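**Sequence, structure tokens**
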Amino acid sequence: MFPSTAQAHVVVDEWVRAGVTDAVACPGSRNAPLLVALDAADRDGRLRLHVRVDERGAGFLAVGLGTVTGRVVPVVVTSGTAVANLHPAVLEASRAGVGMLVVSADRPVELVDSGANQTIDQAGLFGEAARASIVMPLAEDRHGAARTWRAVVARALDRAAGTSGGDPGPVQLNVPLREPLLDPADDAPGEPDPALAGRADAAPWTRTIAAPPSSVLAPLPLRAGARTLVVAGFGGDTVPAGTRLPDGVPVLAEPTSPLWSDPAGGRALHAGTWVLPAALDGLRDDLRPEQVVVLGRPTLHRSVSRLLADPGIEVLAVPAVAPTGRRPRPGWTDVAGAVSAVGALPDPDDWKPDLTFARAWGEASDRAAAVIGEDPGAGGPALAAATVAALPSGAHLVVGSSAPIRDVALAATPRADVTLHSARGVSGIDGGVSLAVGVALGHRGPTYALLGDLTFLHDTNGLLVGPDEPQGELTVVVANDDGGGIFTTLEQGAPRYAAAFERVFGTPHGTDLASLCAAHHVPHRRATPDELSDALAPTGRPGTRVVEVEIDRTTRRAAGEQTAAAVREALGTAE
């Protein structure tokens, strides 16, 4: 067997032995040995292969799979710009802490920087976004070489999973392959070198033992009797299973936090983001906290950023569990200067918070929720609320990173029986459809996505799935406001910028989504928010379908301002 072919079979075999269950691959020439080896493993039932023609979508498919399964997912691409197209997904996986192995086929070293076709200096291409950049030794017909190949694969998987130390995340495994790439006799390795066949007991070549936390964090130094507010953002690893908070302590949680649907004994502030400006602007001084406990990385609301940057409020952060070799740190950096302490959550009996403050926040949140419930309107927030309410129990929901995730936070009623995902690592709209497809494949149950129209159009290649590819049951709800609705709520949406707004921010597209779906043989229907219960009923069949809901973005800014004014009036002053 030619060396490149043999090495490819060894690499894939070691993945399976290490517990890899899914791999994503894109067609190419230089990665041909790896593709053939993956196809053989798939046909033998050793792993599940997902083939995509768009590398960017393939990367986000892997992020979605890794998010749900908790396993490292290899993404195999050819050389050149194919590798660069994975960069957005690598950035998201890095910030979200999702294990991913970027397997980039490459020319051998003698062709790099020589003007050879489809050749770039791609080792280390992802910079600090990758946990490591590892170069596979060039395949050679040498007895014992396979031992090195297997050891390198094991090291790459260990770094991606963070098993022996470090955060899980993306790792690049650059694989230079010299021609001939494929052996005419395309069989599994049968040479006498025992390392080619791997360990007889089917175990991985290198057994990696999970590292314990490097240190036990001291409890946060909470001040007894202080007005204490909990803010929970993106990152479930800062809220370990079994976490308990004192009864009644107010919890302002984003939808990507486990505390959004289960406040762990605290008092959930479902309308808290509407109330917070009143506490910061002096309308309700009784709602102003003295100390804030932060879990995860808040990413959604400017009022929360103001809160955490306020020099008059003490900020105490609970970091993710720190494996060996990593320094505990808060989950965000833009307001890190306001953090006065980093530590573990104290025992609920040790908090001793101001219960009068807690009751005031609960009462204010209830008042705001009543205002919001009186007139949900027909825009994005109303659609988000209707979508979450219509989902079947046990569903997974992927929410787009632009307006939809904020609409869910502002208007939806949390549900503990629905698992919510969103690309809040770097909060991009790249690969939204592909990410949802990956979640559906990992969940293997009814999965839904709520995406804006621009996010949907940004990844229409996510609909491009070959007839032989595995598919999950995915329903994509597209909030179609013919452009960028979120910008109407920001500074550029003010009337003074009206002349420039529509072209450079609103970006209307006029795309016929039904025709686009038809071109991909994807079922499509239009619906109103009131029809979602029927439109989102599980089908029990694999495949993707699209439900388009038209909304009006021209009224979004005024509606938001009216709601905020109504909340301020309802809050009034402390009773």
User: Anything to note?
Assistant: Residues 40 and 188 are 9 Å apart (CA to CA). The chain has a mean pLDDT of 89. The two ends are 82 Å apart (CA to CA).
